[in-house]
Amino acid sequence: MITTRSLTLLWPGLPWLWLRGSVAGLLLAFAFAIALDVAIVLTWVWTELVGREFALGLWAATAGVWVVATLSAVTTFPAPLPIGRSAAAEALFVAARDAYLGRDWLAAETKLRGLLVVAPTDGEAQLLLATLLRRVGRRAESRTALEKLSRSDAGRPWLGVIRRELSRLESTLPAPTAEGEGGAEAVVLRLPADGSSGDTAPRRAA
Hints:
3% strand; Serine Threonine Protein Phosphatase 5, Tetratricopeptide repeat; mainly alpha; two-stranded antiparallel sheet; disordered C terminus
């Protein structure tokens, strides 16, 4: 895995594109590909279009971009995404879950967003945040978050719950946001210990 990560340094923009899905990385990788293709074509295919000096200058510019981009990538190489939760992230999630169960929506959202800054691939935190957004009536944000999570690797264990949340968003009934309204129950999301699919119904707390 480390070798594969290091190989991304060979192409400008690829470290950020491959490891983080960065749009800026995509643009840089695409621009370098065009420059390299043009240099190859003008040097060995359509040699009559430009003079030798122009072709050499284009190669020099392309090489310069490669050197600068590679050195920049080495100094800011994206760190590996964390696997699992650190102790600090787990503490943040527990605090956010407790605030959610206590219907302290603002505190729960603040803690969840803080957790996703340090652990952006935490699918359970993303799902809890999307559920919270639905419950407070921010349905468009909730749908966007759920659809994004469903397309990511982090959302695979939770696909069943994600589908149920999306179906609730399609319902014409308003989402309960106050204690005792409609006998609402708080969903406590926790990945099953046996690693089973997210189709397993989440446990509920009154």
